Amino acid sequence: MRRLAQAPNLAIATLWADVLRSEGVGASVQREYLCAAAGQLPPDQCLPEIWIDDDAQFERARRLLHALQHPPQRQWH
Questions:
Q1: Of the candidates 4, 43, 44, which has an alpha carbon nearest to the alpha carbon of residue 26?
Q2: Where are the alpha helices (DSSP H) in 1-77?
Q3: What mean pLDDT comes out for the span 27-51?
Q4: SS3 of 4, please?
Q5: Bridge partners of 50?
Q6: How far is the C-alpha of 3 from the C-alpha of 50, rounded, in Å?
Q7: Span 28-39, mean pLDDT?
Q8: What DSSP state is assigned to residue 76?
Q9: Is there a contact between 68 and 23 (Cβ–Cβ < 8 Å)?
Q10: Which residue among 20, 24, 66, 76 is least crowded, i.e. fewest CB within 10 A of its CB?
Q11: Which of 57, 11, 66, 3 is nearest to 30 (CA)?
Q12: Are 46 and 38 in contact (CB under 8 A)?
C-alpha cells in the first residue's frame, strides 16, 4: 500500500476513492475518523488519506486524481 494524497475532509476523500475504484484502481480511505483527535494531535496529521492497494497502479492513480482535481476550465465570452 502506498499513500496517494491527503484530502481536506472525509466527503472529498470518499469521493476521490470512489472515482479511483470506478476506474479500476484499488483505493481506500484511511484516517477516516482521526479528526476526532484533532485537539490531541496536529491538525494536519488528522486529515483523511487516500491509499492505493497496488503499488503498480500508483502512477495511474496519481494521474486520475490530478485530472479529477484540475477539471478543464471554460471561458465564456
A1: 4
A2: 10-22, 58-69
A3: 83
A4: strand
A5: 5, 29
A6: 6
A7: 80
A8: -
A9: no
A10: 76
A11: 3
A12: yes
